[in-house]
Amino acid sequence: MRLRVRHETSYHYDAPVMAMSQLLRLAPRSHDGQRVLSWQVRAVPGRPLPFFIDGFGNIVHCHAINHPHRAVTILVAGEVETAAMDGVVRGTAEPLPPPFFLRETKLTAAGPAIVDFARGIGGDASALTVLHALMRAVGERVAYRPGTTDAATAAAEALTRGAGVCQDHAHIFIAAARARGIPARYVGGYLWTGMAPEHDQASHAWAEAFVPDLGWVGFDPSNGVCPTEAYIRTSVGLDYLAAAPARGIRRGDAAETLAVTVAVTPGDQ
Amino acid sequence: MARPEGELPAAGQGTDLSGFDEMHHAGACRAPYAMIRDWLEDLPPDLLRRKHEEAELLFRRVGVTFAVYAEGGNPERTIPFDIIPRVLDADEWMFLERGLRQRVRALNAFLVDIYQGREILRAGRIPEALILMNAGFRPEMQDFMPVHGAYTHIAGIDIVRLGPREFCVLEDNCRVPSGASYMLENREATMRLFPGLLGRHRVASVSHYPEDLLDTLRSVAPPHCPGEPTVALLTPGAFNSAYYEHSFLADEMGVEIVEGADLFIEDNIVFMRTTEGPRRIDVLYRRVDDDFLDPLTFRPDSTLGVPGLFGAYRAGNVALANAVGAGIADDKSVYPYVPEMIRFYLGEAPLLANVPTFDCGRAEDLAYVLAHLDALVVKEARGSGGYGMLIGPQASRAERDVFAARLRACPGDYIAQPTLALSTCPTYVESGIAPRHVDLRPFVLVGKEIRIVPGGLTRVALREGSLVVNSSQGGGTKDTWVLDA
User: Fold this and answer.
1) Are B88 and B481 in contact (CB under 8 A)?
2) Count of alpha carbons within 13 angstroms of residue B181, beta-carbon side
3) Cβ neighbours of residue A41 under 8 Å, at least 6 residues apart?
4) What mean pLDDT do residues B103-113 have?
5) Angstrom distance (rounded) from CA A142 to CA B169
6) Do A113 and A170 lie in a common domain?
7) Domain boundaries, chain B
8) Do A217 and A148 have their domain in common?
9) CATH of domain B223-317
10) How far is B249 from chain A (nearest CA, A)?
11) What does the pLDDT read at residue B14?
């Protein structure tokens, strides 16, 4: 299906900010089941941003403002043709080998709680069965409740709290899969929820795990499904920090007001 | 997989640790030291002591300091300079130089490979997990190709001597090795303290090091850099233990010394703030660790780096020396495989030997190490500066027990090696002149070509019998002479 994305992020400050710098991982690349028809990431006002390809193969846009300012807007807009792949990811660049994705990070450190949780799931079944069971278990065990956790919450903590958002679901899934010896990684992207555009939408996050014979397969514990044609992948990494849609820093003592609108709509056929 | 380098060493309990005496061997003075012997014999007895005191004053006045954190007291102290030079003859140096070139070529080839196709892992020459699970392997660098394939542009290779023709590499320093300024200051000190001494002997000059370093840095500028490349030295700041060296080298090269806050990124290009407005930087000789380079890619809490610098680097708009990610090549758990790298990438037999190494992450190695702690040296796989190490034969029972507990808790964090009897050189001490253990750190510069200033930095353990030469552990330094053929 054809999906159109319009994602606008506006920062407003109550005092001038001297300088700011950001990296944005908000641009999809084409692969099987995902063809990018058009895409732009730009500052408003401003030219399209320069970019580089990072070690994971993500397109990373670089944004810097070196003069005092009180507001800045980032606009992401584009169109992608997707196809149902039953969650199987093919035709991606894959610069890093699957065993690399067994590496633990601070956000995905296993710890006793995760190891215990992971051990009980799926028994001796095949990796694919274990992963499906794991996806369901994460969704059941950790309620979707925004505001309980933040970007720095580690998997083990979110599991203990029993509540979080898609980022936490993904981290727990990843930590548990790795604890079972299955390479897993974080994925950032967009999701068409079927809701009308005026509805609150947000960018989404899920996980991928490496299954022998199949390769990388997506799992979305927040929705209990493998990604469908409603999903657009924009970044991968060991965890949120590596795949973050936006990582920024600013100089100046100001309070920030953030306004985000995401609209994912089926495009013209 | 076979053990990387031959058989397990028979750790020598009760080994003679007195070491090869570089001056006196088999009851005679070795040829390279003949003039040192004559010189010492001719010196009035009182002069050495006066020169020793003069040297101390000189270094304090020039301000050659090295901050030491782990100890109490004044952190800004001078590294003791020993006034008696260490001497290598032309043949010895030629051999070392060939070995160093070979080793550093292989280390760079490894780094290029490990961040691209990883052929050496595919060939089964190095265990895959050892690299991929190692924090020194930086996924951020995957598929990045630095100019001339140079990852480690300034490599400090620590060499110990075990016999007349036996030199071993103790460790490689591929990230931000320091010490070149001491090499230069030491030579300067010899010339001041003993005018004419160098002139009477044919000693290879080291004074062109800053020039070679600048040429090397310019040679790795991005290909589309406009005009003559602009080089700057990025320092963590005046509180860094090696700040003296940073300002010294910047000064000698005639380039700006900058801190993170002096730089900014515009359009993915690095600029330096100057009184005449922004100036583009093409090459950064950075003395800031990877972790602190850029809060947007590495540690988010770092204030030492430049936000966005890594993006400019990956886009090919600035060169960093040394490259990010070079630490995987000098990780102590990777070290045992360097001879394999030389065979794999260069198809040559290694000229410089490795020290046999136990990887405590392997069960059988751990068992052996625990059973022979009184004979081995144990080091942290990712430590440096001589901190957190155990010298078994010189440690107390209690110290060994503490280490045994640490080893059992995190075996993969440690390696062990037989205790090496480092060679000794005559050194000025309170009681007169006595042999003290030394090592050697030559600096290998890699850009369009490889250059090595003859010699390097000799570090000397000033305490009698001590085998730890690190300046952070109370070691001193010596001027190092390479005699012209």
Assistant:
1) yes
2) 22
3) A24, A26, A27, A48, A49, A51, A61, A74, A75, A76
4) 98
5) 53
6) yes
7) 1-205+329-355+420-485, 223-317
8) yes
9) 3.40.50.11290
10) 30
11) 55
CB contact under 8 A, B312 and A100: no
What pairs with residue B284 in β-bridges? B232, B320
Cβ-Cβ contacts under 8 Å, A54 against chain B: 140, 314
Nearest to A64 among B141, B266, B297 (CB): B266
The answer on A44 and A70 residing in a single domain is: yes
Q: Would the pLDDT of A236 be above 80?
A: yes
The whole-angstrom distance between A225's CA and the closest CA on chain B is 29
Chain-chain contact of B307 with A56 (C-beta, under 8 angstroms): no
3 state DSSP class of A241:
helix
Same-domain pairing of A233 and A108? yes
Report residue B70's pLDDT band, with 50, 70 and 90 as the boundaries.
very low
Q: Which two tokens stand for residue A53?
A: 């390809």
In a domain, A90, yes or no: no
pLDDT in tens, A94-130: 999 999 999 999 999 998 999 999 998 988 889 999 9
Mutation test of the interface with chain A: which of B314, B318, B324, choosing the one with the most A Cβ atoms within 10 A? B314
Amino acid at B129: A
Q: What is the pLDDT of residues B111-145, one digit of tens each?
A: 999 999 999 999 999 999 999 999 999 999 999 99
B314 → closest Cβ in A54, A102, A249: A54
- Cα B483 to chain center, whole Å? 22
Say which residues have a Cβ less than 8 Å from residue B224's Cβ, sequence separation at least 6.
B316
A125 Cβ partners below 8 Å, 6+ apart?
A: A133
B65: number of Cβ within 10 Å? 19
Partners of B328 on chain A (C-beta within 8 Å) are none
DSSP code string of B223-252: TT--SSPPEEEE-S-TTSTTHHHHHHHHHH
Distance from CA of A99 to the nearest CA of B (A): 7
The C-alpha of A55 sits at a distance from chain B's nearest C-alpha, in angstroms, of: 4
CATH number of the domain that residue A117 is part of: 3.10.620.30
**pLDDT higher than 70, residue B75:** no
DSSP label at residue B217: H
Q: What are phi and psi of A62, to 5 degrees?
A: -110, 130
- Check pLDDT > 80 for residue B3: no
Summary mean pLDDT of chain A:
93
- Any domain includes A88: no
User: Is A56 in contact with B308 (Cβ distance < 8 A)?
Assistant: no
Please give the pLDDT value at position A212: 92
Residue where the block lists tokens 């990070």: A105
Q: Are residues A109 and A206 in the same domain?
A: yes
Work out the average pLDDT over B453-470.
91
Q: What is the model's pLDDT at position B121? A: 98
User: For B36-59, what is the mean pLDDT?
Assistant: 88
Give the length of chain B. 485
Residue B121 Cα to chain centre, angstroms:
26
ipTM field = 0.94
Taking residue A124's Cβ as centre, other Cβ atoms within 10 Å add up to: 6
In a domain, A92, yes or no: no
- How open is the CA angle B63-B245-B287, to the nearest 5 degrees? 150
Q: Indicate the residue of A52, A99, A249 with minimum beta-carbon distance to B311.
A: A52
User: Range of A40's domain?
Assistant: 2-82+247-266
**A14/A126 same-domain check:** no
Choose among A51, A54, A102: nearest Cβ to B133.
Answer: A102
A12: domain CATH number? Answer: 2.60.40.2250
If asked whether residues A9 and A121 sit together in one domain, one would say no
Residue B2 has pLDDT above 70, yes or no: no
Task: Give residue-wise pLDDT tens across range B137-170.
Answer: 999 999 999 999 999 999 999 999 999 989 999 9
Q: Which residues pair with B377 in a beta bridge?
A: B391, B417
Confidence of residue B69 (pLDDT cuts 50, 70, 90): very low
How many domains is chain A built from? 2
